[in-house]
Specification:
By secondary structure, the chain is of the alpha/beta class. The protein is built from eleven helices and 15 strands. The strands form two sheets. The chain has an eleven-stranded mixed sheet, with helices on both faces. Strands 12-15-13-14 form a four-stranded parallel sheet, covered by helices on one side. Helix 1 packs across helix 5 and helix 2 crosses helix 10. The longest helix is centred in the C-terminal third of the chain and has 17 residues. It is globular and about 60 Å long. The termini are far apart. The chain binds threonylcarbamoyladenylate and magnesium ion. Threonylcarbamoyladenylate (TXA) binds next to strand 5, strand 6, strand 10 and helix 8. Magnesium ion binds next to loops.
Length: 327
């Protein structure tokens, strides 16, 4: 644990640049941060949290200029940024194409949730020169860490550095909104009161069903549905299928595949997680009727990878994925 002086900011920024996870204080809650441009590091967040699925993460920026590099900012969102940044407000915005942000951060969506935190986090982001992906610093299912001690108790063994700036000022995650034309939806109530936002924009926020709002961005099958059919747990490849492989050994008749991308030649689940959304999209662009996916073990990050694959494989009109018999 390090107190947050200038030296700590430099130490944190260089650990992050090396792809390590660092717990950083923000005014809302402590965040478990990774360089948002490093897929392996971002996969490490899910691993450290023990999350059984990938949900889109909030990306933290040091200023509006940095936000501008990655997202398309409409006038109303810009007004909210000027009014409330730095502070506990997250804006969901269209992601610019081909940015350096790793696709795992937005869980493959074409939008990105951005926020500019108060305090030392901003200095670390500026020193790193990249945004930080950071969910709350707690293992999945536990409550968010609001002090360095709480974070240390919960995650200390799994991360390399915790910065200590005392108890979080707000103690509640940021409020998340999404502008849609002239309407603004409240996706997650949080540390900035909805009324304060309403005062600035002069209209009411649209309250979205909370569960749907939190789950939908990461959970709805339609966000992940490739145009190709997806066949899981494939032991034998059929003629013309695009093959999403995993590990050093191939399914039978792998030579039938019209194209193959391997999530991880060495069978490393963290590497596979980092490649998943990108490789699914690349295979789908080939417009083969079927993407065949080799078996992925269910341990560690494999559970989240399989969760996403099952959603991608779910036929649009049925709940059951198509797969070879589990052997
Ligand atoms: O206060 C906070 O916001 C804390 C601190 C550390 O900054 N961070 C935080 O991040 O709570 P995170 O990554 O746990 O927030 C994830 C939530 C998702 O569950 C979803 O509700 C929303 O942010 N979200 C992220 N990306 C989204 C997107 N593209 N569209 C809609 N919602 C999104
Ligand atoms: Mg959380």
């Amino acid at each position: 644990m390090l107190k947050t002086d200038d030296q700590a900011v430099r130490t944190a920024a260089s650990a992050l640049a090396e792809g390590k996870l660092v717990a950083i204080p923000t005014e809302t809650v402590y965040g478990l941060a990774a360089d948002a441009t490093n897929g392996d590091a971002v996969a490490g967040i899910f691993e450290a949290k023990g999350r059984p699925h990938f949900n889109p993460l909030i990306c933290h920026v040091s200023d509006i200029d940095m936000a501008e590099r990655y997202a398309v900012i409409d006038p109303l969102s810009r007004r909210l940024m000027h009014a409330f940044w730095p502070g506990p407000l997250t804006l969901v915005l269209p992601l610019k194409p081909d940015t350096a942000i790793h696709p795992l951060v937005a869980a493959g969506l074409d939008t990105i949730a951005l926020r500019m935190p108060r305090g030392v986090a901003g200095k670390i982001i500026a020193a790193l020169g990249h945004p930080l992906a950071a969910p709350s610093a707690n293992t999945s299912g536990k409550i968010s860490g609001t002090s360095a001690e709480a974070v240390n108790e919960d995650l200390g063994a799994r991360i390399s550095l915790i910065l200590d700036a005392g108890p979080s000022e707000v103690g509640l995650e940021s409020t998340i909104v999404k502008v849609d034309g002239t309407r603004i939806a409240l996706l997650r109530p949080g540390g900035l009161a909805a009324e304060d936002i309403e005062t600035v924009i002069g209209t009411k926020l649209e309250r979205i069903d909370q569960r749907a709002a939190i789950e939908a961005p990461g959970m709805m099958a339609s966000h992940y549905a490739p145009s190709a059919r997806v066949r899981l747990n494939v032991h034998e490849v059929r003629e013309g299928e695009a093959l999403l492989a995993f590990g050093p050994s191939r399914a039978q008749k792998a030579e039938n595949a019209s194209a193959t991308l391997n999530l991880s030649e060495t069978g490393n689940l963290r590497e596979a997680a980092a490649n998943l959304f990108d490789f699914m999209k690349r295979l789908d662009r080939l417009k083969r009727p079927v993407i065949a996916v080799e078996p992925i073990p269910f341990e560690g990050l494999g559970e989240a990878i399989n969760d996403r694959l099952v959603r991608a494989a779910a036929p649009r009109d049925a709940a059951i994925a198509e797969m070879d018999e589990i052997k």
